[in-house]
Structures are given as structure tokens and as C-alpha cells.
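Translate structure to sequence.
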């Protein structure tokens, strides 16, 4: 009887711990997927720094599907508008640019997935990349004229954005960060750059989620997966709203400073990672 009680206690403790981890990492994923500060970097660094075990593939898929749900909810009206007005040149071109921009990133994902899960996960590399890409984001933000809209893109610029998205496989680059930086270099308005970046994330996240969805079915802890999914969904919605709010008056400077600070912190504390 006592042995059974202790087993039940251990099970409950394990479930509580995994649920707390799921909540924290879900919130982190949702916030950092859409803010230009690199979700992959945070999901590697935080568990290592805190001594948590790797939550595994199923959890990673659940978190990304959560952020997919978040961006779909936030841009639902925009997506319905695009779908209902494909006969109009502006909407048709926007969809075309999104498709074109998705292809290079998808190819890069298939070719470099193994390296992204092994070689690229070095904390030192992540720290350096955080600082470098933060600097490039700052330069692009301050030097860009920012007078173009998504409608002013071309197929060539869409390809350029897709190639840039491929670099996001390196933790620390940030998918939203590198695509926003590239969009700013191409002359897009800050808000338009962020919006196109978020719309670009939909097919990439959806494709990765579909390819790895089987992992969720075989996971023994679906309760924790559900917590992570919901946390990343709502945090993602908040992150998109927050980014638009910030760039109305403060440019991307807060994110540049954060990337510098985090990169420096990791370099100083490499022994703890």
C-alpha cells in the first residue's frame, strides 16, 4: 500500500513538473516565434541553463502548431480577404509572393534539418549569431526608407525573402528577425515587413507540423502537450499584437538591444550551458 502511494506521488510530481515545463516553454515559444529574437535559441538555451531534460520532438511539434494557431487567429480576416479576392491583382500577387517565398525555406529545411538539430545548437554559435543578426536588424531598421507595401514586392524580392528565411534554421537567427530585416532592406514599411513575415510563417510552420505530426500521436504525455499548445497559441497572439504596438513608435531597437544583451549573457556564462 505504501509503495503504491509513493508511486502515485512520483507520478503526480512528474506530471506537475512536465506541465510546468510545458507552460513555461509554450509561453517562450509563442513570444519568441514572432518577436525577432529567435524562438529556437530560447528553446535551446533555457532548458540547458535550468537543467531541464529535452522535452522531445512531440513537444516541439505541439509548440509550433500552437504558434501556427496563433498567427491564423490573429490574421484570420486578412487570410479570408486574400482567399475571397484572388481575382484582384493585389491579393493575387500577395498570395503568389507568399508561395514563392516559401519554396527556398522549405528546401533549406529539408537539406539542413540534421545540422540544425546537431551542429547549429552550440550555445557559443547561438550567442554570436544573436548579436550579429541583432546588429543587422538595427542597421536595416535605421537605414531603410520604409516607404513600400507588400503590393510593391516582386517575384525576385519574394525569392530573396525566401532565401533569407532559410537561414532561420540556425538558432539565434530568428525566422521573423531575418525576414523582417530583409524586408526592411527591400524598402518595406516596418508594419508591412512584419505582416509579410508573419504570413510567410504559416506555410512553413504548417508544413513542418504535418511532416512530424505522428510524434504527437505516440507521446505518452498529451496533457503537457495540450498545455504547451495553448500557451504558445495565446502567447503568439500577444507577441504579434505587441510587436505591432512597439514598432509604431520605437522602431525595432528594443529587440536589437535584447539580442545583444542575451548574446553577451550567454558568452559570459558559457560554462552553465
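Result:
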Amino acid at each position: 500500500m505504501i509503495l503504491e502511494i509513493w508511486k502515485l506521488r512520483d507520478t503526480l510530481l512528474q506530471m506537475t513538473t512536465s506541465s510546468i515545463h510545458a507552460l513555461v516553454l509554450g509561453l517562450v515559444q509563442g513570444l519568441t516565434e514572432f518577436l525577432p529574437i529567435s524562438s529556437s535559441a530560447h528553446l535551446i538555451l533555457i532548458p540547458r541553463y535550468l537543467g531541464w531534460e529535452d522535452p522531445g520532438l512531440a513537444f516541439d511539434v505541439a509548440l509550433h502548431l500552437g504558434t501556427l494557431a496563433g498567427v491564423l487567429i490573429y490574421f484570420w480576416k486578412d487570410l479570408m480577404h486574400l482567399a475571397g479576392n484572388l481575382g484582384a491583382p493585389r491579393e493575387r500577387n500577395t498570395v503568389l509572393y507568399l508561395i514563392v517565398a516559401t519554396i527556398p525555406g522549405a528546401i533549406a529545411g529539408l537539406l539542413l534539418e540534421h545540422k540544425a538539430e546537431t551542429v547549429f545548437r552550440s550555445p557559443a554559435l547561438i550567442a554570436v549569431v544573436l548579436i550579429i543578426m541583432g546588429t543587422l536588424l538595427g542597421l536595416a531598421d535605421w537605414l531603410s526608407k520604409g516607404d513600400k507595401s507588400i503590393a510593391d514586392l516582386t517575384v525576385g524580392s519574394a525569392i530573396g525573402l525566401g532565401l533569407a528565411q532559410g537561414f532561420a534554421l540556425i538558432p539565434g537567427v530568428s525566422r521573423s528577425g531575418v525576414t523582417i530585416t530583409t524586408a526592411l532592406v527591400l524598402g518595406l514599411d516596418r508594419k508591412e515587413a512584419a505582416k509579410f513575415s508573419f504570413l510567410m510563417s504559416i506555410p512553413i510552420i504548417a508544413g513542418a507540423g504535418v511532416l512530424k505530426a505522428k510524434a504527437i500521436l505516440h507521446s505518452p504525455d498529451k496533457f503537457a502537450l495540450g498545455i504547451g499548445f495553448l500557451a504558445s497559441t495565446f502567447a503568439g497572439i500577444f507577441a504579434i499584437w505587441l510587436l505591432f504596438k512597439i514598432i509604431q513608435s520605437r522602431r525595432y531597437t528594443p529587440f536589437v538591444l535584447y539580442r545583444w544583451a542575451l548574446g553577451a549573457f550567454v558568452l559570459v556564462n558559457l560554462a552553465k550551458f
